[in-house]
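Exercise: predict the structure of this protein bound to zinc ion.
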Amino acid sequence: MGEIFIPERVYNTVMPSRRQFLLAGVAGPLIAATPKYDLIVQGGRVIDASQKMDRVADVAIYGGKIAAIRPRITAAGTSRTQVIDAHGMLVTPGLVDIHAHLSDPKLPPGALLGDGVTSVVDGGSCGADNVDELVKVVQSAPNRARILLNISRGGLSGGKELLDLSKADPVAARSAIERNREWVIGIKARLSRSAAGENDLEALRKARMAADPLRVPIMVHVGNTASPLPAILALLRPGDIVTHMYAPAPHGMLDDNGRVLVEVREARRRGVLFDFGSGRTEHWTWDVAERALAQDFAPDTISSDMTLAGRSDQVLNFPNVLSNFLTLGMPVENVIARATANAARAFPEFRDYGTLRVGATADLAVLEVRAGDFGFVDNYKTRRTGRRKLFATTVLVAGKRVS
Ligand SMILES: [Zn+2]
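Solution:
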């Protein structure tokens, strides 16, 4: 029995009326009755940039997949369909955070589920010498967790991992990726002075040597680097990711007059992605973000750079990070796109996520936009008050409610 597909599970056995049968048409389903669903998320504003959707609708889920999105979906009379009331809420794909840190046992990937984060990428916590432990963590995570391997063999190791350039080992990195190819989906190189000293460009060249034969992207952490940003961008290829894009001078993305550098625009044109990467120290200011946004240079993706320390300072949770952009005046649908469809598109491994397309895995978040006076801070403790803040209220992974 177990393997046999039972149509009753999908459709009521009630025979269709002649009218229903005719309406179903020649190419329509054989039995045109009310479909059964496991779960219906009702009445929310469905925002899904992957299919340019932004409208009030119901989302029906069956067998862990998105089964339908329509204005009114009714559950079959006798079915045990679960209903989640999302009136007044946003219904989005499960959030995708492409830069977080997952190696601290006190902050496992599953801890982020309650924030709506159903897919998450560790941004270089570990290197070739210690990644196997982290692979075990992501393998057993209840959300879709993947890893960017630090080009330095020991990973972060106190944050000075590239001061000794001999630790950047492309051969070791390549073999670590090859033995964990399903879980390690790219390379991370942290290039700020505190991590790499004067070695930024040379370390990035080593990252290239590891990444290129395997055709995986490199995420570079910029801000306060020894080399100017254009010199770093010159070494990046389409699909590579610049995180901490709104880091202030020295060597940020703006010139002395606050204009976005031509080299930065040129890098975007050829397919280099720019990521927010909130974090807590030296990674962004309201001023840089505001000037860049005013010049139409928004992030491709918004990420948290979440750490255990960030959990209680500045970063707090992913919806809080996203809410910074509401405070900066970005429309909510554009904010959501950058934490769902855009973020999933950054990695081929996330192709089935960040979307509510019919047939896709039903990772979904119900978000509330609360109105009030909320405090937000940049990495230099400059405070701003925002009038709206996002909160995750319900989270589904493969159609199962996890929060
Ligand atoms: Zn990071």
